[in-house]
Amino acid sequence: MPEEIISTAAHLSPGQKASIVKIEGRGYLRKRLLDMGVVPGSTIQMVRRAPLGDPIDVKIKGYHLSLRKSEASYIIVKRLA
After folding, report:
1. β-strands 43-49, 56-60: how paired?
2. Beta carbons of 64 and 22 less than 8 angstroms apart
3. Where does the pLDDT of residue 5 fall: very low under 50, low under 70, confident under 90, or very high at 90 and above?
4. What residues does 77 pair with on adjacent strands?
5. What is the mean pLDDT of residues 13-38?
6. DSSP 16-52
7. What's residue 6's pLDDT?
8. DSSP 68
9. pLDDT at 1 over 60
10. pTM of this prediction?
11. Is a pLDDT exceeding 70 seen at residue 3?
12. What is the C-alpha separation between 80 and 10, in angstroms, rounded?
């Protein structure tokens, strides 16, 4: 069985998919991410990065979401093969 790779959504490469393990942080940012559908168990796919690397475009539950890298660093993911 391959070893699971735990990382953050900010470290995914374009085209790479991952399963959301948990959302770190507290308060407004955590609530905002959960309200946008970024919930544990969902699949997240990195679509592309802006030319300077920030923000990033991800796809969750069939819709696109633009996140700052600092926001994506609170999303703990398990990379999918």
Report:
1. antiparallel
2. no
3. confident
4. 7, 20
5. 92
6. -EEEEEEE---HHHHHHHHHTT--TT-EEEEEEE-TT
7. 86
8. -
9. no
10. 0.87
11. no
12. 15
Say which residue the tokens 């539950």 belong to: 61
In the block, tokens 């699949």 appear at 43
Are 40 and 23 in contact by the 8 Å Cβ rule? The answer is yes
Buried b (16+ CB within 10 A) or exposed e, 31-65: eebeeeebeeeeebbbbebeeeeebbebebeeeeb
- Can you tell me the distance from the alpha carbon of 44 to that of 57, in angstroms, rounded to the nearest whole number? 10
Q: Hey, what amino acid is at 10?
A: A
Distance (Å, rounded) from C-alpha 35 to C-alpha 27? 12
Cβ(67)–Cβ(74) below 8 Å: no
C-alpha dist (Å) from residue 56 to 2, 27, 59: 28, 22, 10
